[in-house]
Amino acid sequence: MLLYHGVGERAGADDPFRLFVPPSRLRRQLSMLLAHGWTPLRLDQYLRGDTPPRSVLVTFDDGYRGMFREGLPVLRELGVPATVFLLPGLLGATSRWMKEMSGEPLVDEEEVQDMARAGLDLGCHGWDHTCLAGADADTLARNTTRAARALADITGRRPRAFAYPWGAHDARARRAVAEAGFDVAFSTHGAAGRYAIPRVDINALDTVVSFRLKCLPGFPVMRRVSGRVPGLRPALNRLTGRVARG
Ligand SMILES: [Zn+2]
Which parts of the chain register pLDDT below 70? Predict the structure, then answer.
């Protein structure tokens, strides 16, 4: 399970969390997976459990216009399916949940329809990127049930997958996502069954070496274990270009 955010060339000052991967790099990374015999999955295939040993779900969070304009052509060129997690409360707006990079444009309704027509699988990333861990009932309802309905109104299809904003979740958030009718939900680190499946995040600092390391089946375990060994987590983070997000 790979987690990308934006696609495009961004200077470090404009993208302090290094969320944007240049299209040439995305092409190289996905080509490498294909060359090593990985099968990228459609979301439906993943949900059916039709997952061969070397299979991967490629996901993109937030719904950046850069992903649509510069990432989609790469995916189509390589024939790689992907799932994009959208924020129906911020369509046509910008990434204002991050004060350090609040002006990054997000896709609008028309572009969401184009994404669906282009064959991207569309999931829900909440309503407006509000953190759902510790959220009250109204906030949970807006970010799950209402967000799902808004996406269904645009695409004609109920989204089946959810990705937690900031990767953050707790038992109430997971229950709200399940009760809203989603089949599955993705986090970044914390694993908790079908409604919190971790993903490995890829960012602009990843090198060929760190990307290959992150694609090893043992990487999530390595990352978990490294948290308990002094000095290992920072070393692993240095190696894999992980950037702390505010
Ligand atoms: Zn996000």
Answer: 227-232, 236, 238-246
Compute, in angstroms, the gap from residue 165 CA to the centroid of ligand 1: 5
Query: 97 CA distance to ligand 1 centroid (A)?
Result: 9
Q: Could you tell me which of 105, 61, 55 has the C-alpha nearest to residue 83?
A: 61
Q: Distance between CA 167 and CA 189 in Å, rounded?
A: 7
Residues lining ligand 1 (ion), CB within 5 A?
A: 61-62
What's the rounded Cα separation, in Å, for the pair 230 and 211?
23
Domains in the chain, please, with CATH? 2-240 (3.20.20.370)
Q: How far is the CA of 235 from the centre of ligand 1 (A)?
A: 25
Q: What is the pLDDT of residue 239?
A: 65
Two structure tokens written together for 131: 């953190």
Q: Tell me what pLDDT residue 246 has.
A: 40
Which residues are CB-contacts of 190 (< 8 A; sequence separation ≥ 6)? Answer: 167, 169, 196, 198
How far CA 25 is from CA of 41, 55, 107, in Å, comes to 20, 20, 22
pTM confidence score? 0.92
